[in-house]
Design goal:
With 729 residues, this protein is of the alpha/beta class. It contains 19 helices and 30 strands. Strands 7-6-3-2-1-10-9-8 form an eight-stranded parallel sheet. It has a six-stranded mixed sheet with strand order 13-12-14-15-22-21, with helices on both faces. A five-stranded antiparallel sheet has the order 11-24-25-30-27. α9 runs parallel beside α10 and α14 packs across α18. The chain starts with a helix and ends with a strand. Bound molecules: zinc ion (ZN). Zinc ion binds next to α7. The site of zinc ion has 8 residues, from α7.
């Protein structure tokens, strides 16, 4: 399968069986349907997943019946099981494919496959090719990854193993032989590749030679994405991963029709790649990860997978850089993380490292999550998300303006963290506002993908090509609305700075300069205006720390103006040079049939840093003013809920995840803290007849009423994740 074939195959799948892109006229134009699932029937039907990652000492010591019982209890329809790569868990005949230390005469992978098959489960074989044995290294020293000085890399954690090069014989000769053997012998539905793409830059002779042949350059020794060698390397590395991916896919599908290779982390090339499903490896929270992050990962990957299945892979243990791989999380944290993903469209996938059970405390909570999911299976088979707001997710802003490592923000090079922080800031604001929203992929901005949204939120989407700018312009011309912050469109798709914003015509201003680290600066809210509604009692609120000087195209009064930075010390000097100015810090504009809100500052990133409530009011008002229509779902009641609103074949489901917990922004949860009461108002598709309404967490039949075309549902209490399920008659 070459690149063109790949695109064609993906397109065929999107347009074929079930017609992913076919719009089904089930309701008013305010909603859009994306139709039934394309892809492989077995993958579409696998709603729940289990993964067991074996260790070398498992074969004589683990209890297979524990796992078959667990699979049954949790109603999983598919499993991912360790097969080989660096270490084999079956009697392999491939030379240098080292069998697990304690495998003996057994076939652990085969036993588990057989048991899973007896339960009518589908099986994905897990391979991990990032390391090789001493014997493999002795026979093929050229398979090892090398450091910059050309020395082969010993494995950082297992001293008797070596790190493999992603571009040499191990990946391109040895692994295809392993994949073919496993496919021939066990006929798995597919493969899951862990650490399949190498372990960072490799400077071996193979890499040097291949890179030189492809680009005429030497390998880069800097991460600066604006360095020409580095820029070429980013593209070359993507090409090599595509080659590896297609070779592995071709290998397994030649042995078994429709068998596929699914790379952990995806390929970053949505326009080329077709996977029948993707498992997103987000094992747990660490550091200051908000509990909604699992839902965010679901939205990010669904944005480019469209209606194909996406699985949220979580680990039963503590996820942390200290890597306590044999640890166990307590129930409340496991539940909160898994349900955060389920509410946003993930199919749950639990992962246990080590087939032996030292600490069984994870079993009951995981069983509970999966039994609930199974009991409500039909309401989890989503056919469309009904959100009218989408946040653009920009991979290229992260790669080409940031480089994947922390750079000092400067001309043409932006700090990586800025991209994520701006996104997280607006994400948090939308969660707090209870506005149901999706994410849209910046590589799929055609009307067929974004046309169903009313509002696109663009949190500092710095890198946009001319074509992407035109797609956004077309969206607004067609009546779409955008809410934009910071340096959006100031760089092209490869991170080269433009003289002016690519979208200056929409913003209503031209770029002059950016100032970072601005202290002690304020904003004056002007009234009355929908953008500043709720701030009528605030004569002055804090500004953001990155401010962009712009030249407005007209003299229109704007509802937010600047109080320029002034000394913050000594105290005697802490007074503004100007109490107020006419310098606009927002542009609220009607453009054709559309609307545009542009903030010339990093108000979303500052919100992520400070979480000031005044900023939240502005971020929320901006989306509501831009939308200028009732939200498909509203909730009244106290606290923070992460919401979503879905359509299934014959039902609607409004998900309300209770995030009211002191551990919301930094886990783990100690306990679930119920919240309520809430009143939920749902837009009902025109012509749809509401049948039974039930609450899937409490099991109760709620009090309901009608308000015009909306269904109003009383939800007295949410433990963790309530779902208002509405059958359509
Ligand atoms: Zn190499």
């Amino acid at each position: 399968m070459n690149q063109e074939d790949g695109a064609t195959r993906r397109e065929a799948m999107m347009l074929g069986a079930g017609g992913l892109l076919a719009l089904t006229p089930f309701d008013a134009p305010a909603f859009a349907m994306t139709g039934d699932m394309a892809g492989l029937p077995w993958a579409n039907n696998a709603m729940r997943w289990a993964q067991v990652a074996f260790t070398e000492e498992d074969p004589p010591r683990y209890d297979p019946n524990f796992w078959f019982d667990m699979f049954k209890k949790t109603h999983v329809e598919a499993a991912c099981l360790s097969a080989g790569g660096d270490i084999a868990f079956y009697p392999t005949q491939v030379p240098l494919h080292k069998r697990a230390r304690d495998l003996g005469d057994r076939d652990m992978f085969g036993e588990m496959v057989k048991g899973a098959r007896a339960l009518k489960m589908s099986v994905i074989a897990r391979v991990d090719p990032h390391a090789m044995s001493e014997e493999a290294f002795a026979a093929h020293p050229e398979w090892a990854a090398c450091t910059e000085d050309g020395k082969p890399r010993r494995h950082w954690a297992a001293a008797d193993m070596w790190v493999t090069c992603q571009n040499g014989g191990f990946m391109f000769d040895f692994m295809p032989a392993v994949l073919k053997e496993i496919t021939d012998k066990y006929q798995p539905e597919g493969f899951f590749g862990n650490r399949w793409a190498g372990s960072g830059m490799c400077y071996c002779q193979t890499c040097r030679t291949k890179f030189r042949a492809a680009t005429g350059m030497e390998l880069p020794t800097t991460n600066d994405p604006q360095n020409p060698q580095r820029k070429a390397y980013i593209q070359w590395n993507a090409d090599m991963r595509w080659k590896q991916f297609t070779l592995w896919n071709d290998t397994v599908s030649a042995s078994k029709k429709d068998c596929f290779f699914s790379p952990n982390g995806g390929l970053n090339e949505p326009d080329k790649v077709m996977h029948p499903l993707i498992a997103v490896d987000r094992q747990g929270r660490s550091g200051t990860t908000p509990v909604w992050a699992m839902g965010k990962y679901a939205k990010q990957v669904r944005a480019y997978m469209q209606n194909l299945p996406v699985c949220g892979l979580f680990n039963v243990g503590i996820e942390d850089e200290n890597r306590w791989k044999d640890s166990v999380q307590r129930g409340p944290e496991l539940e909160a993380w898994a349900h955060s993903g389920i509410a946003q469209g993930f199919r749950p996938w639990y992962c246990k490292f080590n087939a032996r059970i030292f600490d069984p405390r994870w079993v009951a909570p995981v069983t509970k999550i999966f039994q609930w999911h199974y009991a409500n299976d039909k309401y989890m088979r989503n056919t469309a998300n009904l959100a009218r707001v989408a946040m653009i997710n920009s991979t290229q802003s992260g790669i080409f303006t940031a480089g994947g490592t922390a750079f000092t923000a400067g001309d043409g090079v932006r700090a990586a963290q800025r991209v994520t922080d701006s996104q997280n800031g607006y994400y948090q604001a939308l969660v707090e506002a209870r506005i149901p929203f999706e994410m849209a992929d910046d590589r799929q901005l055609e009307a067929q993908h974004i046309g169903r949204y009313r509002v696109l939120v663009m949190p500092d989407i710095a890198a946009l090509s001319d074509k992407q700018c035109q797609q956004i312009r077309d969206f607004v011309q067609a009546g779409g609305r955008i809410v934009v912050t910071g340096e959006t469109s100031l760089y092209d798709e490869l991170g080269k700075r433009r003289a002016n914003f690519g979208l200056a015509d929409l913003f209503g201003c031209d770029y002059v300069k950016t100032e970072n680290g601005v202290k002690n600066s304020y904003l004056t809210p002007r009234h009355p205006h929908p953008l500043t509604h709720g701030l009528e009692d605030a004569p002055r609120i804090i500004a953001a720390t990155q401010q962009i000087t712009v030249k407005p195209h007209d003299a229109a009064k704007q509802p937010l103006t600047l109080v320029p930075s002034y000394p913050d010390l000594p105290m005697e000097r802490v007074y503004p040079m100007a109490e107020q100015t006419d310098t606009p810090m927002v542009f609220c504009r009607e453009v054709g049939k559309g609307r545009v809100v542009y903030f010339p500052m990093d108000i979303d990133r500052t919100f992520w840093e400070v979480l000031a409530a005044d900023h939240w009011v502005l971020l929320k008002n901006a989306v509501e003013w831009a939308a200028d229509e009732p939200s498909p779902l509203t909730v009244t009641g106290a606290g923070i809920l992460d919401v979503s609103y879905w359509r299934q074949r014959n039902s609607l489901a409004a998900h309300l995840v209770n995030m009211n917990n002191p551990m919301m922004m930094k886990g783990p949860y100690r306990e679930i803290m119920p919240a309520g009461p809430y009143t939920v108002s749902l837009a009902v598709p025109a012509g749809a007849k509401v049948g039974a309404v039930k609450l899937l967490e409490s099991g109760a039949t709620p009090k309901t009423s009608r308000n015009g075309d909306r269904l109003v549902v009383e939800v007295p209490r949410i433990r963790l994740h309530e779902v208002v399920a509405v059958d359509l008659a």
